[in-house]
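Question: I have long wanted to understand how a fold can be written as tokens. Here is the record:
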Amino acid sequence: MSYKKRIDGRKFDELRKIEAKVGVIPNADGSAYFKIGDTEAYACVYGPKHLYPKFLQNPTKGVLRCNYNMMPFSGSGDRVRPGPSRRSKEISLVTEKALLPVVNLDDFPNAVVDVFIEFPQTDAGSRCAGICAASMALADAGIVMKDLVAAVSVGKVDDALVVDLNYNEESFEGEVADIPVAVIPSTGEFTLLQMDGIIDKDRLLKALDTAKKVAEKIVKIQREALKNKFEIKGA
């Protein structure tokens, strides 16, 4: 079998349509909305604030905590079971790891910055959309950051290398490799690299190189959303 044309008509290296906004939740210290295709992520940031209980505190710098949650009606497949799950805990942890390299928490000893990521609708790529939204929300909250983090899935559907897999491609009957990655665009460093499926070394390296190029497109949209909020009107 050969995958010669994408199910939704996109080019193999083409992203789904992206929308991005910040400051969407008034009562949060920082917030963002990131939509890619039919996957929607809302992220809100609270803190820095004192961390309790005290045994969780770090006396040298602040702690970053992320909480990933898909609403019960959000999935493209079966209904999502409410409450924490093994998957949501795992994605919460990898989201923290993906963001920590760019976040400066040195000025907040014994404090915590909480990030909550909610999904009212998903069509694959939720962890990547969540990381993009959380990165923007942290910047909106005024947390000092080295750069934003852009995340996207790349991979293989049969013999074709593709960018930003949707649900139909992830569940394709042929051979599929789904590789979520997060990139610091200014340095090209990866802060997240996971894989579901099998892919040979040469194609993996090509996919990762493509991910870096695509991350540049995503971070431009993220930065533009921040500029739109903070630009001085009429200046």
Helices lie at 86-99, 126-140, 167-170, 201-230. Strands lie at 18-22, 30-36, 39-50, 63-70, 111-121, 150-157, 160-163, 176-184, 189-193.
